[in-house]
Structure formats: C-alpha cells, structure tokens
Task: structure prediction
Amino acid sequence: MDKKIGFHMTPEEFRRHGREVVDWIAEYYEKIETFPVLSQAYPGQIRASLPKDPPLQGESFEAILQDVGRLILPGITHWQSPNFFAFFPANASGPSILGELLSAGLGVQGMLWATSPACTELETQVLDWLADMLDLPEKFKSSGKGGGVIQDTASSASLSALLAAREKATGFQTNQKGCDGRLVAYTSTQAHSSIEKAVKIAGLGLKNLRLIAVDDRFAMQPAALSLQIGQDRQAGLIPCFVSATVGTTSSNALDPLPEIGRICRQEGLWFHVDGAMSGTAALCPEYRYILKGLESADSFCFNPHKWMFTNFDCDCFFVADRETLIQTFSILPEYLRNKASESGAVFDYRDWHIQLGRRFRALKLWFVLRYYGIEGLQYHVRQHIKLAQSFARWVQEDDRFELAAPAPLNLVCFRYKGSDEQNQQLVEKLNQSGALYLTHTVLNGRYTLRFCVGQTNTEDRHVIQAWEKIQETVKTLSAE
Amino acid sequence: MDKKIGFHMTPEEFRRHGREVVDWIAEYYEKIETFPVLSQAYPGQIRASLPKDPPLQGESFEAILQDVGRLILPGITHWQSPNFFAFFPANASGPSILGELLSAGLGVQGMLWATSPACTELETQVLDWLADMLDLPEKFKSSGKGGGVIQDTASSASLSALLAAREKATGFQTNQKGCDGRLVAYTSTQAHSSIEKAVKIAGLGLKNLRLIAVDDRFAMQPAALSLQIGQDRQAGLIPCFVSATVGTTSSNALDPLPEIGRICRQEGLWFHVDGAMSGTAALCPEYRYILKGLESADSFCFNPHKWMFTNFDCDCFFVADRETLIQTFSILPEYLRNKASESGAVFDYRDWHIQLGRRFRALKLWFVLRYYGIEGLQYHVRQHIKLAQSFARWVQEDDRFELAAPAPLNLVCFRYKGSDEQNQQLVEKLNQSGALYLTHTVLNGRYTLRFCVGQTNTEDRHVIQAWEKIQETVKTLSAE
Result:
C-alpha cells in the first residue's frame, strides 16, 4: 500500500492521474477500430473477473486504471466506434467530454438558481440558442412564456410533458386527487416505448393509451387520431395528450405535425413532439421541413446526446407554457426557500422535471456549440445524412436487397430478399464478426435491418466497409 | 479562427486540452477557499455576460476554457468548498471525477446488458459490495431475489419504489387500468419533498398521501401510522406504501424502522427506507444502529453522491424483490430485443428505473471504493461526524445558542436564542460574508439554522472558523 488511510487525492496527484486518464482516453480513440464493436463477453464473464469482496484498504490509482483496460474493456460495446450503426447513436466529442469533466470537477447542484446561478443561467441561454439554431417557434424561448430545460433523457421529457398535460386537462386536480381512469393519451403504433412507460408511471393506465394506426410510410394517420378522440369523448373519457414523433426509432418515420397539431388545437389536447434523434437535423435549413407544424406544439424535445456530439445525458426539453410545467412539479419545503426564488426573478429548474438534484450539464453543451459553431455542426449532420443516403442507394442498386422504409435522414431500414431467419442470421453474423454493429426491427411483420449513421468519427470508408461486409456476409447465409 | 469547419478534436488535441482542463480543476481546488462560498451574482448577471447569439463558426478550445473562469465562475456556488455546510453535501473526490471522465470518454449506454456488459455487471458487483459494506440484509443482494441499481437521485428511487408498491398492491393492474383514487401512501411530516412529488407523479394524488406525526425528536410515530392505516382501510382505501427516513433533510431525524417495519409486514405494505445522506454512516459499525430494522424493508436507497465522495449523480437503490420492480417498468419493443436478454441470464437495467438510456456510473463508484477502501471511507465519515459533534458541543456550551434537534450524525440544527428574524438575519449575514454557506429550516415553527459537515476537504480548521464567524456575527445582529 502506498497510501495512508484516509488520504484524499491532492491537487498535485489529481494533475498526474488526470493526465493518465486523458491519455488513456486519447489512446482509446486511436485504437477504437481494433476492438470488436459489440462486446464478445458472455453473461457473467466480467463479474467473474472482479474480486468477490470490496477492498479493505485503498489502492493506488495506477492499479485501478490498469484494471479498466484489463477487466472492463472486454465488456464494452463500443458506442464511440465509427463502425457503430446500431439503435440510434449516442455520440460524443472532445469538447463535450471535457465539458463533462469540468462539470464533475466543479461539482455544483443546479436544483435552485441560488445553488449556482451560472448553472441555471447558462442552461437557459444555451437552450434559447438552440431554439434559434433549430428555428423553433419563438414561444419555446425563455424570453416569452416558454423555455427550455435539460432533462436526462427523452423518456423523462415525455413523462414530464404527459404530466403537465394531465394537470392542464384537469385544472391541476389530478396532482391533488389522483388519476381516475378517464384521461386518455395518444401516440402512433411506431412511437418509442418510453410513451408506454410514461403512461404507466403517470397512472393513466395502458388501457388509456391509444396507439394510432400509421400509413405506409409508418407515419401517424391524422384521420385515425381524430376518429379515436371522438370515440373516446363519446365514451365519457378525457383525451389529454398526443405525442408525435419526428423520426421514429424503428424506421425514422415523420409524423405529420401540421395535421396532428390542428387536431390537438381543435380538441384542446397537449401536443408533444419527440424529435429525440432527428430533431438535430433541423440545424440545417434544408431539413427543417421535419419540424414544420411545431407552431402548434406545447412541448418538444430532442437529444444532443444522440446526434449532436454531446455525451449522454443531455435531452433538451422545450415548453411553450412554462407555468403549467412548473405548477405540475412544484414543491416548496422550507429547507429550499430562499430570497432569489421568492423574488420570482429566477428559474429554479427543480420544478421543471422529476429529480431535485441536477448537475451542470449546460457546460458540455455550451462547449460543443462553441467548439463546432453552427456551421461545424451543420457540416457533420450533412455528412452523416449523405453517407446514409449513399448506403440507401447501394441497397437499392443491389438486387439481393430492398429498402424496408423511406430513409429521409440518417437511418436506413433494409432487408435481404430472403426469409426473416436469413435476415436474423445476417445481423448475428455481422455483429459477431466485430467489424460493425447494427440492430434490427420488425416492419409490417418482417424482420428488418437498421443501419444508422451518426457516430462522430464515421466517415465514408466505414460505411463502404460496412456495405462490403454485408454483401460478403449474405453469401454465407444458410439456404432457406 | 484557427479551425477549419467541421474538424473534430483529434486525440492529440484531446491530450493537450484534456491536460488544460485537468490543470484548471486542480488549480480550482487549490484556490477554492478564496471564493465566496455562495455566489454573489444577482439574477440575470451571468446571462447578461454571455453573447446573445450562438457562434456561427467554431472557436478555439482555449477561448472557451478561458470563459469558464471569466464568465461562469462568478456564478458558481462552491459545493466543493470545505466551507460549504448548507443543505446536505454533494461531495466529490479525485478518483470519482476521473471515473466520470472515463465514463464520458467511453460513452457507452447501459440500457441493456448487451449494449455494454461491463456497464451492467460492474454495477451489480459494486452494489453487492456496498450491500456488504453497509451490512444490509442479504436479500438486497443480487445473489438472491433482490439487487441494487444506480439511479440518478433519491427522488427517482423513491418514485420507483412507490410505483413498484402501487403495482404490487394491485396485482400489476394499475399499470393496465390506471389509478382509481384509492391507493394511499404514508410518510412522516418531516420526509423529503420528493415523496410528495412522487405521489403526484404516480397518479395517487396528494389527498392520498398521509403525513404521519412525529415525536419530539422529529421521528415518525408508529402508533399514529398504525392508526391511520386502520382508518384508511375502514374508509375503503388501499394502503400500499410507507416511506421512512434515516436522517431527514430538515433535522436528520431517524424514523424507528423496526416498529414501522412491523406494521408494514402486518399490513402487507411496501416499506421503503430513504437513507439518502445518512445511509453512508452505516459504513462504520458503530453507526449501523441507524439501519436496524431494515430486514423488513422492501427497498432502500442512499446517495454516494451526497456523502461518499462520488460526484453527482449516483443514488444506490436496493430492492428485496427485483421481479416486482422489473415487472413494474418492463417494456419490450422489437428494436431492443436480443438473445442475451431473452436467455434470462442477464440484468437489463432499463427495467429498473424510469429512463431507458443510462451512462456508466458504476465506474466512478468503483474508483471511489477502490481508491479509499473500506477503511478510508470509514475514516472520513468518522471525521465528519466528529467535527459536527464538536460543533454541537460548542453550541451547547455557549449560552447565546441552543440545539434545535438531536444531532446524531453530521448535521447540527441550532438557533441563536433570539427572534426568528434575528436567526434569519444571522444566516443571511453569514452567507453574504462569503466565508461559509449554511441554510435553514423550520422546526416546531421556529426558524432554525442547519450546519452539515460532509464536504470532502472539510477539516477541523474550517469548522472552527465557521463557529468563530457565527459567534462574531451574532454580535452584529439588530436588536429585537
């Protein structure tokens, strides 16, 4: 043991070990393409390599860091590999990682304005910037009655929107009296599972979630929505919330916001728009059509931690009417009272989400926006979309393959023209090869491959290699 | 501009800028005592210093980092200052900060086992370690039917416990049919505001939250709980959840777990124990009495991000019956299906909490446990308690002051023997001085000062200085 009991790491030691970790990360990125993208660990392998009991005495930092490479790395699925095409990306970048480091170093809480004014004010500013950068309606900015807040994930943002909708529909009485089984929420059959989870958490019950049918592009059918709302009203129920998706997880479908928004306005329902991944595309004027109709939305979220080079977690959640959100979540125990809050001149973000404590996440977002600038971010988004579009074209040009859905942005859904089993085999073989990682979905009852381009360092060569690997692998599939 | 559009930070640049940030943090800790602990910024000051619009082109990392000191630091309330005695601590440490950095660098998602097996398996292992370190009942370990998971905050953990309780009480039917206004939850008048927030979110309604009276030590009265449950049953309601606190936020009161547990077992209610800050004290055998009675609990949480040198966020949430928790949250869209999950041999932590995405938080916790070892952590906990106990003694020995509540651990509630207004003035003058930061509460209707010792680097001299400053400041209070 080279440490006496109870010594903290001194600033001098922090400098030394901090450099070791920085170097470790830099080296990780230099050699990231040498690892199999999907971890090849078997269940229990990593745990079996760890000591059964926690250490009685402290260990040297060197020993700990060494074990990260030795014990942890084999169990890592490399989300930051440029050969990662699975799910949606959760990309990151140098400025973001260093912003996160700084946030951890400062270690402040942003639950109240007073507990670190910069944590709140930078967040408000950066979210107003983003509203402009995506050309969101003015009402989502803090200068009016709305505003943005950083949530951990779109799951939490959607839940927050649903809760605000629930309270608005019942004059804030559900918070007081509880749900009574009459509130109804709407989304499409293609919406993210987080909507289902939110409906359960908020006490509405799954039987009151309507999964509206989609068209042949997997987009919600407004007529079906309208019809269902009418039927529910006739049945004495209280429609309160519609969640539309800009870029569904399965196939990147774009729900028709203008039509859905019109229905929500007519019917007086809260209209939430989930643009978790695809919202980022609106950085570029040529893709802003995806948010057309957002004027009639009550809330919107997108995740810089997916496709905007900001490491997880960082979901940006905007509301048009912040008072409704605040009133939904507001709590005021004595030990949190303070003059600044009572002056009404500040935001206390604890009342904008589920948690009380919150870290300084605006810092990393600020770092990313400044380091890249609007033009830098646009450049990369365009590159990713261009690569995905090339991939989609190659799929179409190869007789053995077909597209399974429109590919408007950076996700391509496709399949080998064979059986579902063969397509499943194809995914498994590709992922087991370690050369790339992609995942699947089911569209129209058919097993479908998903290829999403969004990792920070993905370039032409990675997409070309992936396509070659796919072409090569289909030759090895078992006959039907 | 020294950067071309669209260039990412190269590993070599990351090494250079990473060192700059590491040095910045080391220097911050070296000079942290020179800053006023509570930020002296006025509302709007930080925002006013920021550019109105986001940058069109990227900026150099040096320029960004410089602005942190110039624009952000004046708006920071220094939670990591050894003169921070406010709220509960949210402490941090070198190994934890570097663990967070590494986690940001790896940038993996732990929503499914398969999306990074090490993220899940290290978490399970470290939480089992912690169960042993706090001498929790065996049932909370993953080797049996229970297990632990890292949540962001105790707010989310309590909400998760309440949701599981709600589902257990209704045979998982509330998820399907929604709340019907009959489920009732119980906690004490002194419980954290997050219980109130959870009851609202989960759709029970505040009218179904019973705030049970406390005794003269601010601990829940089991007889009153028992009586209330009986009355609610007679009224046709369905009692489902009791949350007891080990170390309330106001005054560090310890609810009597054995008696409350007995009632919960008799009545068949879910028994949750919130030890957000004080749970850490159970690292030391001599303080384990605070968790006596935990054998009958269904869930327990404590926050290493409060008092265990692990930067926010890191709440450890343990359940005795993981199946109930998992069934409460479970969702299974096609795009998340995979062989490992279907084998049943792995945990998918997405089903243990609200969010889907999750970062690799076990890494920083593992770093802390290994760097300090059990003995190192015990040493610091004992030091903090010793310092708080000295402070409590000084209060008692000074005729001008009195203790306002028992001080079993590291929080001292006290007041100047004057008016509420004078005590409020005292807090304001102390905080405005910049020499320290403490906050207040109200106990038995009286304005009360809270002094909590828990920041990583707080030593004897800081507590002595604080007491001297308090003694000196009372001399300057306006007459009643």
